[in-house]
Amino acid sequence: MAESAIISRHLRALWAFPGTELGVVGWPATKRERAFGNWHYWWQAHLIECAVDAANRMPTAARRKRVSELVRSHRVRNLTGWTNKYYDDMAWLAIALERAERTLGVTEVRGALIALENKLYDAWNPAAGGGIPWRLGSDFYNAPANGPAGIALSRLGRYGRAQEIADWLEANLRDADTGLILDGIHLPGGVIERPIFSYCQGVVLGLETELAVHTGAPRHAQRAHRLLHAVDAQLTTGGVIHGGGGGDGGLFNGILARYLAVVALMLPGEEREQVEDRQLAATLVRKSAAAAWSNRLEVEGEPLFGADWCKPARVPGGSAGAGFFTAGGSVTASAIPERDLSVQLSGWLLMEAAYQVSAAGM
Q: Could you read off the pLDDT of 132-169 as tens digits, one per residue?
């Protein structure tokens, strides 16, 4: 039902081109949004990954076709190729396309993956002490760029660089007091931006789990254990991921849920600690999904998820506040954030994550 709601409310052909489909970033949508006047690269990357989830959950020709159309449309709307100047954007797209190729056999992404892999690998800056900047030419090195870049590079077989990224994140952005991952650091000055965002925790959990599987180095499972329990203690209420917003922030909790599911399904080891960690990660996903579902609205028979899964969803009205790009490059929220595609994608991400852990009997 989460999939169906996105399809009916948000998917639209790109500029009326046949064989294309992208996500309109608001519902109800403005004329500019329906025309894809602004480009939300990383939102569309998560839309592709949700479509991959759906095609794996229940394979059909229509779902497989939708993935190909979304991928093709992403390239067309990006105008200049597959890449851009934001390393976090490119990392999210690389993750989505790698999964499309590996799990669905979408062969047309091979050239894109080569271009994205090269950009992400070469962005590592040893002159600054390591790390990947948020965007080309920036002095800001943050978890939302390094975490997904590490996941993408690990899945593309670049385990050495992925480990360098994980070790850099641990050394520079783990907060000793909370155990959580801070936003980022300015280099070479060393000034740290200290906000705690849920998706920063998610990508580091995902990266450490991937590396625990592929390298066997004990430090990765140990870090995942420590971070998982910090998330449980500080970012959940009664086992439900709390908080949430709109705009770019609408995706944050859904990303955390996705990588909690990765921990639940992939974290290796049969000692009591690893078994309990997998169970805890699955429980957080399932309880969050149950809360989001119970707090949804039904609009024309389809779910509308709340920005905060602990609170009842609200029906969006006008487009006030929506979709503006700030000086820092982030996208602002609608006055009622349930209007934003990011919020509804987060709900879909959560439901797919809950399906995956439930299907595994967790």
A: 999 999 999 999 999 999 999 999 999 999 999 999 99
| Contacts for 69 with CB less than 8 Å, ≥ 6 apart | 19, 20, 21
| Structural domain boundaries in the chain | 241-315+330-362
Question: Is the N-terminal amide bond of 195 cis, ω within 30° of 0?
Answer: no
Distances (CA, A) of 260 to 218, 283, 362: 19, 9, 12
- Please report where in the chains the tokens 């025309």 appear, as a residue: 35
* Dihedral Cα 156, 159, 161, 165, nearest 10 deg: 100
Tokens 């993750």 sit on residue: 95
Residue 109 has pLDDT above 80, yes or no: yes
The position carrying tokens 């592929």 is 214
Q: How many CB atoms lie within 10 A of CB 168?
A: 19
List, as own/partner pairs, every contact residues 293-297 make where C-beta atoms lie below 8 angstroms and the sequence separation is at least 24, other chains included: 293/351, 296/347, 297/338
pLDDT band at 359 (very low <50, low <70, confident <90, very high): very high
Decide if 211 contacts 217 (C-beta within 8 A): yes
Beta strands 191-196 and 297-299, pairing class: unpaired
Nearest of 248, 156, 254 to residue 210 by alpha carbon: 156
How many percent of the chain have pLDDT more than 90?
95
Neighbours of 258 (CB within 10 A): 27
For the chain, the helix, strand and coil percentages under 3-state DSSP, each to the nearest 5: 60, 10, 30
Spatial strand order in the sheet of 191-196: 140-142, 182-186, 191-196
Per-residue tokens: 81 = 């190729």
DSSP-derived 3-state class of residue 11: strand
Confidence of residue 317 (pLDDT cuts 50, 70, 90): confident
pLDDT tens-digit map of 232-271: 999 999 999 999 999 999 999 999 999 999 999 999 999 9
The DSSP letter of residue 94 is H
Measured torsion, CA atoms of residues 282, 283, 285, 291, in degrees rounded to the nearest 10 = 160
329: pLDDT confidence band, cut at 50, 70 and 90? confident
